[in-house]
Amino acid sequence: MIDLRSDTVTRPSEGMKAAMMRAEVGDDVWGDDPTVQRLQATVAERAGKEAGLFFPSGTQSNLAALMAHCARGDEYIVGQAAHTYKYEGGGAAVLGSIQPQPLENAADGSLPLEKIAAAIKPVDDHFARTRLLALENTIGGKVLPPAYVTDAVQLARQHGLATHLDGARVYNAAVASGQPVGALTAPFDTVSICFSKGLGAPVGSVLVGSRELIERAHRWRKVLGGGMRQAGVLAAACLYALEHNVDRLAEDHANAAHLAAGLAGIDQVTVQSQATNMVFAQFPKEDCAPLEAWLKERGILTQMLYASRFVTHLDVSRADIDTFIAAVKGYFAR
Ligand SMILES: *Cc1c(COP(=O)(O)O)cnc(C)c1O
What we know:
By secondary structure, the protein is an alpha/beta fold. The protein is built from 14 helices and twelve strands. It has a seven-stranded mixed β-sheet with strand order 2-8-7-6-5-3-4, sandwiched between helices. A three-stranded antiparallel β-sheet has the order 9-10-12, covered by helices on one side. Strands 1-11 form a two-stranded parallel sheet. Pyridoxal-5'-phosphate (PLP) binds next to helix 3. Residues 57-59, 62, 83, 136, 166, 168, 194, 196-197, 205 line the site of pyridoxal-5'-phosphate (PLP).
């Protein structure tokens, strides 16, 4: 099957599985797993932070970070479209007693500075205490403008706020902008990075930050049930991904551009945006369900909605994109 639904659908390669088989392990709840330690140190070093912490998922990594920054009754400023706010079951509020202050994202994914400034609450017992600004990079596939990130973080600092980056796809942002990942993570106090998206590992996220913040997140990871034992088998996949699957993200980005160009050539389709490994496009509403079924019969998995997202990844080739485009054309020509 050609699966364009998400970059989470990648399967571990033979090389990755071999690395997992060879992994040296120990009980990581006791801090005994040498492969987990190596992953945490490697990711922290590349991100320019003191420490790293391995999590089973990006959702848990983000939540533990928010809980490390904010106490009960504190507030974090976040985008309406941000994963931590919209797609994580409201975990910050539900499990962290942290009040979200969502703001409308601008078209480029940023949160306008004047809106951030206006949302920061004065110190007053009537208000939740505004503690944290959380951004996301990439967001909807888009790389946040670096000058914007600098300004937003500076604004947060001026008001005494900490900063967190949901960097689930920060390696896509780094490759797309030709910057070392450390340049994109440097402004933030904490950054969560996913290995189970375009990097192709089956599981895993690493949170990086200062030793003190990571120690706090470590306690919350245990509370949230994220303490894993011989997790080196998983960390080995992430280390393999760092070594083999970062530079090749450029191929996914080129394939997404190729996919967008193909769809743009079809009269019934409107391409809304393409950035890094994502393409958003609009189809006639009445065609969505039949087109999704048509594609599935031809071995292509999509999630065809009025505004559909197509995601490229290491299990999708240039030829697969051509097959997909030909199938969409075939549907409209039938
Ligand atoms: C996927 C994703 C997460 C969460 O990661 P999971 O491992 O699926 O829990 C967080 N943030 C963003 C931007 C993501 O795309």
